[in-house]
Design brief:
2 domains, 371 residues, alpha/beta, six-stranded parallel sheet, Diaminopimelate Epimerase, Chain A, domain 1
């Protein structure tokens, strides 16, 4: 009797989930309107598994409407797993430089983000049509696009695209098709990565994974996920350990000067420090290529909202009209502050000490501690 009662209580929830309005129909109408055109898929920030997999999925979906797409990034892939993902799947990521010609594109789309702020092409994109925005972070005010699907409760953007793919390929992706196998493997890696191995997954992520798994290259997925840390990242983690400062359950640290290709060592150091007993929130930063102060925040506190914390701590770039930092509402966030004119300072160590003092002071203010 108890077992039948449990099933009865669960069934209405499952029916409600399955009967949610399907956003794919809306996206399909928009893509049909732009049939035969060229679409630029913009990957804002450092390429990671969620935006890479989502961009690849949008590329495959747009192809059903004769739309040619390019995935554009602004930074070299730096995390060891992400480099392996791009290399092993032979993904074509277009890296922006001063010679990049965007005049060939009629419109653009954003995945795993909602604004192209801070990119060197923001002015050029303002002249193009924003066709689609698909994201799982906190929805921004004033967002305008022909199609918008922002789900704050979703664990990953890849999981949302998995829902679209079930509509287009109801019998499943074809494991014998190399493009489908690449797509399934990339999306599965994106879901696992952004949900912390499913600890923060929602029903879209689980349903997408169940749909994708028959076409996933499991051997390749294990290989991508098992990449070892580089010596440079290991050194950054060691530096963060040595320089850590603890304030109750908060931990603050820095990793020194960082080369662009090792930039993803900053969030990896933050992840490692979060495993320390008695700590529930970590902020780690470094100076990347002497040009920007890049930092990562990680938390498991029920009281810390990473997005609100970083926006309050570091404020707004008045020139660009956007916050220096932000994140999701659960567990992670990041910030990037240009050093600007100070980068010309001859004494690198003095410059770094100044950066440390400023970031440390902002951090203490944010947690209610005196300098």
């Amino acid at each position: 009797m108890a077992e039948r009662s449990t099933e009865t209580a669960v069934e209405p929830v499952l029916r409600a989930v399955r009967s949610e309005p399907r956003k794919w129909n809306e996206l399909a109408e928009v893509l049909e309107k732009h049939r035969g055109q060229k679409l630029l898929v913009v990957l804002v920030g450092y390429p990671d598994p969620d935006n890479i997999g989502s961009g690849l999925a949008l590329q495959v979906l747009a192809r059903q409407f004769g739309i040619e797409t390019n995935l554009l990034s602004f930074h070299e892939v730096s995390h060891q797993e992400n480099r392996a993902l791009v290399k092993q799947l032979e993904l074509d990521l277009w890296l922006y430089d001063d010679r990049t010609d965007l005049s060939q594109f009629d419109n653009y789309a954003l995945v795993d983000t909602q604004r192209p702020d801070g990119t060197p092409i923001a002015d050029q994109l303002a002249e193009k049509t924003l066709v689609a925005v698909v994201d799982h972070h906190k929805r921004l005010k004033g967002l305008k696009a022909e199609f918008i699907d922002v789900r704050e409760d979703a664990g990953s953007t890849c999981g949302i695209f998995g829902e679209y793919l079930r509509e287009v390929f109801p019998d499943g992706l074809d494991s014998a098709d190399p493009d489908h196998e690449k797509l399934a493997t990339a999306l599965m890696h994106g879901i696992r990565s952004d949900t912390h191995q499913y600890l923060e997954a929602c029903h879209q992520d689980f349903e997408a994974s169940a749909y994708l798994v028959p076409a996933v290259d499991q051997t390749l997925l294990r290989k991508i996920s098992a990449q070892s840390l580089s010596p440079a990242v290991m050194d950054m983690i060691q530096a963060a350990l040595e320089r850590r400062r603890v304030y109750d359950n908060f931990l603050f640290s820095d990793v020194g000067f960082v080369r662009t290709e090792n930039r993803d060592g900053i969030p990896q150091a933050a992840d490692f420090l979060l495993t320390r007993a008695g700590i529930d929130t970590v902020l780690v930063f470094g100076v990347v290529d002497g040009r920007t102060i890049d930092g990562s925040l990680r938390t498991r506190s029920d009281l810390v909202n990473p997005d609100a914390f970083l926006k309050k701590a570091f404020g707004i770039d008045e020139e660009k009209g956007s916050h220096y930092g932000g994140g999701n509402v659960r567990d992670k966030g990041a910030f990037q502050i240009p050093i600007g004119f100070l980068a010309q300072h001859n004494d690198r160590e003095q410059l770094y000490r100044l950066a440390c003092e400023i970031i440390h002071e902002k951090f203490l203010e944010a947690i209610g501690q005196e300098s």
